[in-house]
Amino acid sequence: MPSTPALSTVAEHARSADADRTLATAVVAELTSAGLARHFVPRRWGGAEGEFSALLDEVADLAEACTSAAWVGMLWAAHGRFAALLPEEGQREIWGTTPDVRISAALMPPAGRAEPADGGRRVTGTWECVSGIGSAQWVLVAAPEAQGVRVFAVPAEAVEVLDTWDATGLRGTGSHTAVVRDAFVPHHLSFPLAELLRGGNTPGLARCHSVPAQLAGGLMFCAPALGAARRALALWSAWAAGKAPGSGRPHHDSAAVRETLALASAHIDAAGLLLRRAARRADTEPVSAALVAGNQRDAAVAARLLADAVDRLFRTGGAHLRDGSGDLNRLWRDVHTVASHGVLRLEPVAAAYASATLAADAPARSSAASRSR
């Protein structure tokens, strides 16, 4: 969990991150010192090989201070997990000096092209929405080649950054466009994207490196929204405990205010419970298609609960609480931006969940029907 000074620094720069569309240098330094980038890095390089449950708590705490900082920190951790699938020589090149290496990534959808070259490949392409790229030291990009799609680790100095990020929420993430022009990437700095999607299968891999990406992807993406919603509830509750202008009566004398408190707080608590269960399963339970689909479902439903909660808070709060430059407005925008991420969209997740669970139950239902005849 980040230290109090780190959280204080992150919170102090939350408004400027939103206005400037980037994280302050001091925030980048605090996040790096807090160990986000090393969370999943293999222990042999000085990393923590950490658990998803611990990362969920850490990212949610950070998001109460600044959602954009939490988002970028979460991705640094996730991308360290991805880079752990590189060959040994590639890992050494990235982490041989320190495990605290900031890695950005653009993997879905794959873009550009990778052409064979002596000792590796030459990579060219443009990838959008690369969060935290302005402070990254390495960038992972996915590009198609004849044998499929591969992930390539490219040093930041070989990447051109186009200033294109001007979204409604998560503005401080600096999720700009990355351009790579004919960069040579040696064999030891790439691996098949399919290995990441199915989970690494090299003997001796830590749990966090061997599970498929989709088992924990949704819960990690949703974690910043959990912290942001908790902070929104705290701000709204301070307003609700105060007195209404003119009448001098507490805002919570209103039935609508009391109902909002009950529903919003319950939705936020429920989302937290869903995400915690998903993280525990990602850390400990045997991997199956049903488990992956269940975790995806829980993360998507949690995102919907959190968006609904901040909607209720935003609608019920007073006019000054909804000021365009106010914290509640920023948190509301951030939560909705997180919830709109493709990984957290309910429609495709629901289809995957139905396929995994109903297909698994079909033989049992068929057998039961046969016995009943």
Structural class: alpha+beta
Write out the strand line-up for the largest beta sheet, numbering strands in chain order.
1-4-5-8
Q: What Rg do the Cα atoms give? A: 22 Å
Low-confidence stretches: none
Secondary-structure element pattern, one letter each: HHHHHHEEEEEEEEHHHHHHH
In one word, what is the shape?
A: globular
Q: Mean pLDDT score, rounded? A: 91
Q: What level of helicity do the residues show?
A: 40-55%
Biggest sheet descriptor: 4 strands, mixed
Give me the number of helical elements.
13
Plain-language structure description:
The chain is built from 13 helices and eight strands. It has helices at 4-12, 14-20, 25-33, 52-65, 67-83, 88-95, 193-198, 207-210, 213-241, 255-284, 289-316, 327-339, 346-372; strands spanning 103-106, 113-117, 120-130, 138-145, 148-155, 159-162, 176-186, 190-192. It has a four-stranded mixed beta sheet with strand order 1-4-5-8. Strands 2-3-7-6 form a four-stranded antiparallel beta sheet, with no helix packed on it.
Describe this structure in a few short sentences.
Helices cover 54% and strands 14% of the residues.
Write the layout of secondary structure elements.
Layout: H1 4-12, H2 14-20, H3 25-33, H4 52-65, H5 67-83, H6 88-95, E1 103-106, E2 113-117, E3 120-130, E4 138-145, E5 148-155, E6 159-162, E7 176-186, E8 190-192, H7 193-198, H8 207-210, H9 213-241, H10 255-284, H11 289-316, H12 327-339, H13 346-372
Parallel strand pairs: 1-4
Antiparallel strand pairs: 2-3, 3-7, 4-5, 5-8, 6-7
Helix pairs in contact: 1-3, 1-4, 4-5, 4-9, 5-9, 9-10, 9-11, 9-12, 10-11, 11-12, 11-13
